[in-house]
Structures are given as structure tokens and as C-alpha cells.
Amino acid sequence: MKRHPRISLRRPEATSLNRINAFNKADVKVFYDNLKDIQNKHHIQPDKIFNVDETSISTVQKNSKILAERGEKQVGKATSAERGSTTTVVCAISAAGQYIPPFFIFKRKRMNALLLKGSNPNMVASVSDSGWINDSLFIDWLQHFISYAKPSLTNQVLLILDNHESHISLGAYNLCRDNGIIMLTLPPHTSHKLQPLDLTFFGPLKSAYYQECENYMSDRLGKPITQYEIVELFTNAFNRCSNLEKAASGFKSAGIYPYRPVDIDTIQPYCSQNTSFQITRTQTQNSAINNQVSDNQIANDSIVEVATIEQQAPVLQNLVPDPQNLISQDCSEQVSLSDIVELPVMSPKIYKRNIRKKKSIILTSTPIKDRLEEKENKKRQRESKDTEKKSKKQAETKRRKREDENRKETRKVRKNLKNIGDFGHLEEKYKKTEKEKNKNDEYFCIFCNEKYNNSETWIMCHVCKNWAHELCTDQQSTSTGYKCDLCRT
């Protein structure tokens, strides 16, 4: 490390294989070409260029480093729980430094006004079953965005976002087209390099939020952080981090505004990057060292094995160059890492299914509408099929439940008959089929004993539940209903 001051020991950032494969020359070039076409056509100013993205905050914070006694093996600090609940926050910034008020999404069934305790007056919130954003919630956020960005058909707004499925829907397309919003998507899995919010804002924001959580836990011993406190803690962190420099720096780092695309020629897969380093020695030193090595080899062939270490020391000192002299010399050549060792080459991923590869697109362009309508139709057909399957499953469940009840009733009757005795004719009487149960029972008039028919008016006694012709009765009824002569006595 002392011989090479340009080299330092670093902890690498975890980068998934999807991000490594997606961040390539072709996909990045498509994004910048789309951005250039939009700028050439609409000439959008920096105060109308926005970037939106979601981030998650938890009720369990990541503790920062603390001072502890040297040699202590375990150093602990209190957190709210082992695993906290996650809340999604939708943030948007412009290249001119404007911040759209955050939009919170809680993992709940019903919204409670106390969840926004301690927030700024312009912050809003909603709920979802999973705590993540979906199609309908993104449309709600777009309406919230329109109220602050003030887009119109004559003064259009460019909205840069990722390729998440919740952002791509027919409802969002129609709303953006009607209000003058141009949506441009980033290439998949490239937000760590091309998304302004990820580059300069979310990192400091998360650190400030965790610091607020630590201060809360220190001031209120034994009180955990719940969903009712995270908005207030997040608001304090948001107000401290939201400044013009971070927003402008994010768009500048991504090459969006000012328009300076990433140097595409330098983009290479992470596992096959050719790391070059400098050898600080001149050609004269190279030849001298080579001559010394060859002379030393000849001397070693003829030297006697009993030579002492003191006799070999001057030869070794002349052979090994001084590191300080090497560092002080000017750089004369560069050696690539691939010239020294054989680097692994990533083989292309082979898919078993024909998966349509995603890329950067202008979501509000006309060709996308047909694709979105097709997607919406497929979604409706899938929902109708799911509803039909669910209804069939419910009907089958009811049928099986009815069969089980009939089976239990039959077993109960047989058991009772066996307890009474062997009465075969009674057992046959209780074996009624489903059709016989559905038939109407026969009724007779309690006065004239005539069989029931539909041509005459009948009345039932509310006490004994027997039927009679209305003409056969005295047609006298009480407040509770008709009461026959037999029940009056």
C-alpha cells in the first residue's frame, strides 16, 4: 500500500447480476437518444424536468458507529424491534431544485389521520395491503404531482422514472396525455447510475432519518417507534436534506441536465473490467534490472553451495530496486490487468422462455397506447377468469358441505334407529332423497280435512302451525296473527 499510494482498501458495493448485465452501451444509448429527441422537440426547461422514485423506511433504524472500550467484543444499541414494518415514500425532484411533497404509503387496511402527525401541511398519505405502490396509487400520486408541478398541454413537463409495472398502465397514460406530462423510463436495473434521486438524495436522506430515529430512542427510553412516529421523524430528515444543490447535482451526475451522456465507451461489465496500473520505471532501469537478473543467474550456476549469506547480500541489494526511486520516476507505460492474469468472461444469459426485454421508452408516445390497451384487456380477462374460478370453487364447496351434512344426518338417524331397535320400515321411511326433500309437504284443513290446493285462500295458526280454509275459520285474528279455535280453548 505504501508503494502504491493510488490504491486503497475499499468495501465494494453489492451489485446484482441484473444490474451488471443491464448497464450496457446499447440500453444506455437508447435512453439518452430518447432524452435528446424530447429536448429537441419540446425544449423543456430545467424547472419542468422531474425525477420520481420510491424508497422504503422502516420502524427499525440502522445504528451508527459509537465509541466503545477497546477490546469489547459485543457492543449493543437499542432498536424498536427485530423486524419493523415498512412504509413506502414517493419522492420527486426537479433539475431546478423543486421538491414535490412526499407521498406516504402505509401497510394498513384503513387510513388514520394520526399517521400524518408532525408532517408538513402539504404531505399526503394512503394505504395498501402490501405497503408498496400499485397502479391506482400511482395515479393518485400523479394527481398530487399535477397540483404542484402545474403541467399543461402548452407547458409540458418531463417526468423521468423507472420501469416498474405500477408506473405502466392505461389510466396513467391517459392522465399524463390529458395534462401534458411526458413520461420517459430509465433502462431496467440502471437506477444506481442514471437516477438522480438515487445518486445524490436518497443516501443522505436515509442517513438523516436513521439519526432522527436514534435521537428518538435515546430521548424516550423504552418507547418503540411505530407507524404513528415515522412521518414526523422522516419530515425532520427531509426538511434538513432537501436543498437545491442536491437536486441539481443529481441531474448533473446522471447527465440529464445539462445534457452530458455518460461516456459509453468506458462502460464495461464489472467482472471483466481491465484495471490498468502504471509501472514507474524507465526503459533504462528495465534493461539494467534484466542484465542484473541474467548475471545473477550465471553466478548462481557457478557459485559454490557453501557461500555465505554475507557474500550474497550485495548481489540481492543490487538486484532489488529501491521502491522510493520507483515511485519518484515518471510513468512510462501502462499495463492492463488482463495482460497479467486471465480474467473471467461473463457468458450471455440463456432464457428458457421468450421474454420481451425491457428498455427505455417514452410512455406517453402513441405506439405505447396499443400495448397498454392490450395489457389492460388481458388483465380484465384474467380477472374474469379468476372470478369465475372463485365462484365455481365456492359452489363446489357448498355442494360438498351439503353432502357432508346429509351424510351426517343419515348416520345420526341410523344410529338412533339401532338404539330403539330393528325397525326396518322406519329406517326406510327416513331415507329420503334430495328430490323428495325439495317436494312440498301435503297439508289438510283442520276443520273440513280437505287437501290443500292453490285455488282457495288458506290461513295458518301462529300457535300450532296448522292450516285451514279462510272460509272455514271465523276470520278473527289477534295482534300476533290468526289463532285457531283449538288453540283458544
Furnish the topology, listing elements before pairings.
Blueprint: H1 17-22, H2 25-42, E1 49-58, E2 86-94, E3 99-107, E4 124-128, H3 135-149, E5 157-161, H4 170-179, E6 181-185, H5 191-194, H6 196-219, H7 227-241, H8 244-253, E7 276-279, H9 283-302, H10 309-319, H11 323-328, E8 333-336, H12 337-340, H13 366-420, H14 424-430, H15 434-438, E9 458-460, E10 467-469, E11 477-478, E12 481-482, H16 485-488
Parallel strand pairs: 1-5, 3-4, 5-6
Antiparallel strand pairs: 1-2, 2-3, 7-8, 9-10, 11-12
Helix pairs in contact: 3-4, 6-7, 6-8
Unreliable runs: 268-320, 326-331
Share of helix among residues?
40-55%
Tally of individual domains:
4
CATH architecture of the largest domain: 2-Layer Sandwich
Q: Please give the number of β-strands.
A: 12
Q: Give the radius of gyration.
A: 41 Å
Largest sheet properties: 6 strands, mixed
| Alpha-beta content class | alpha/beta
Account of the protein in words:
- The strands form 4 sheets. A 6-stranded mixed beta sheet has the order 4-3-2-1-5-6, sandwiched between helices.
- The protein is elongated and about 120 Å long.
- It is built from 16 helices and 12 strands.
- The protein folds into 4 domains: 17-62 and 80-272, Ribonuclease H-like superfamily/Ribonuclease H (Nucleotidyltransferase, domain 5); 276-340, no CATH class; 385-439, no CATH class; 443-489, 2-Layer Sandwich (Herpes Virus-1).
- The chain is α/β, with parallel strands linked by helices and 489 residues long.
- The longest helix is centred in the last third of the chain and has 55 residues, at 366-420.
